[in-house]
## 1
Amino acid sequence: MRVGGMSRVGRWLVWLASLSALGCADPDRDALLVVKVEGRLAGLRQLRAEVTLGGRTSSPGLVPSGPAPSDLALPLSFALRAEPGVRGAGELRVEALDEAGGMLGEQRVQVTISAGHAVTVSVCFGAAADCPLPVDGGVADAAPPDAARECSGDGDCTGLGDPCADVHCDRAAGRCVRAPKNQGGSCATSRCDPPGACSYPSACAVAGARAQTCHDFVCLDGVCTDQVRTTNDPTGCARSTENQTCDTPQCTRGPCSYSGLCASSGTRREDCSVKTCKSGVCTPGQTSQMVSTGCERVTEGKPCNLVGWCLQISNTVDCECQQGQCVNPCGVYECRNL
């Protein structure tokens, strides 16, 4: 059964890489943690996996990224990748979830991440009759033969194989040795990281695509290896751009004009060269409008170039602006031109 990708594994990879700053750095190649889930569990719709390494716990990865529409068929496998320079002993926790995200069961396994190697970890959910007997804590280390288990017969090597290699006993050496197989074949379920944002070839383009990184896990020389590929998915990227502005408008403005000497705001003409999308093409155009931008002023209490009479004598005073009107400050007679 093909299971959907782990949408949040990327967050674990970033976290593992950050451990280099804690003194775990190693120049060797990256490593894979292949998780094989066995057994039988009614209502199983999703798996959640997290790793604790160096006292820190990763963000959880989900398989598939959303609850499956029907029960997951076991066994199934998925893979997590550790960035170069990350290694050490830790613990893998795998939770079995139902359709609503409730936990049906939990398994914990000790793991050792070894740079440049693949480690296959087996966990089992269900009754004892549905689960194979564990071997070395359920961990099959795909390290070179000199790191394998001592043996006196093939029975001592049972359970150490994985999709990329069979393991048998080299009686002369007294050790279990790996025999690569399935060259170029799949060793874990392929998965894709979440797609990125839609990108478009131009401001007026109506079709775009999301870049998405996918991982295919194949056997190369006896090791389960992550083969990375990038795809462009147009799903969900269609859009309408008609009449939308596709460039920064270039505008010129004329002088401000006011309705009177005491007016505190005015208007002026604004002519703009505006480009808009027409049938997917950025097309030049012109607009013209009256705007008030930059035409605000303070007139309160200022002379309004008219004079008035005070106390009915020949004394004249400057009229002034009050609340937008030109008035006589003496309150006698009106302001007028003389």
Note: DSSP finds one helix and 21 strands in the chain.
## 2
Amino acid sequence: MAAASQAAAQRADTVSIPGGPHLHAGPGIRIKGEITGCETLRIEGAVDGTVAASHVILCNGGSFLGTMNVDHAEITGSFDGTLNVRGQLVVKSGGSVAGTVRYGQMEVERGGDITGDIGRASGQANDASHVAEAPAGSHRELEAVKRVLQDAAPSKLGRWAPR
């Protein structure tokens, strides 16, 4: 009984599920087809198909194969396919995403893996408003560093050589 309570508490600590209709594909559950009208989809089993939801949580041990169009995604399991995230995509440690990925914002934790055709969602310009302007002399300093590296003897640089 204590182990079951501890497992439930651990699950509750890792994810908060927003209100609205939600679907939970628990461990050992396999779903194939189209899922729509779902506020929150939590996958601990296997889903093969197409998903349109607001928030998707692909848990450790869970897998998804297909196309997903969501506002937010949190991946700790295995995703393979096309993933379109209008808002934030978080690939947690142990999570694996492969395929075509479009995102508004992305965070990949140490131990998370993302491979394939990765890019910003269309209409999501790179927001550089938070980037400070470089100090006046920095361009000259960068050019000086490049010259030093280009003039350095290859033996000191190992196998690196300027192009």
Note: The longest helix spans residues 138-151.
## 3
Amino acid sequence: MTFTVAEESPPAEYRASKRKAPEGESTTDLVFTSHLGNNAEIFRKILGLFVPAGSKVADVTYGLGAFWNEVPDGLYRVFPSDLKTGVDFRKLPYAAGEMDAVVLDPPYMEGLLRDDGSNAGNGTHSTFQTAYSNGIRPEGLDAKWHDAVLQLYVQAAVEAQRVLKPKGGIFIVKCQDEVSACIQRLTHVELVLNYWSMGFYPRDLFVVTRNGRPGVSRSMGQKHARKNHSYFLVFETGATNSRMNCINLMAPGAAADALRQVRPVQRRDRSGKSPATPAT
């Protein structure tokens, strides 16, 4: 006797679903976080990622305009200024919320901000003075050495925050770590923490490694690795709480507790609502 078995469709949860083909195409033509070369090459790519064409961009440390060497003319509405044009980036001639983006590249060597007459920027350091400083210590700095560098960056960020549009404004900052008084100062980390505490979302980071091998004129023995890289940091205004939760301090101790109080982490419950920040 022959039996015929009827074929039944499997339950819906066991059926093989047709996978939707993802859009896009395979490519290696991407912008990477690490770049070997000059600032202009990666700066153009940073603008392409974060700043739409036609945006109003205030380059408040324009200098010789080296950042813009590879950006097509007319692609952005650029507002160049620097100390040599009489514009202090801590007091910009723009209305609140007027700019889509701000570019900052202040003196990031503590030797350019000394007030004892020993400023770098003389002799072999003349290129630094031309590009980053007018040779005069800015007024309104009461910190010394590397802390004066950090103070200047923070003062600049306060003004950038004022002139940037309150949501989606892009703040592009150039910096470099340094050893000051034989102490390792990780400037890019200090800036991320300071700017984050001010309400800037650290959206991206780029490392620029210089070509060639930097040297020194007088070596008395090496104590730290020689810096041959710098950073472009990209910050954004008006980010959501979930994005601002990008930095979380898990370590115990008074120092971490103090930083946690600056910007308490906002946790979402299952309903998707953010609980109120606990009173301190």
Note: The longest helix spans residues 145-163.
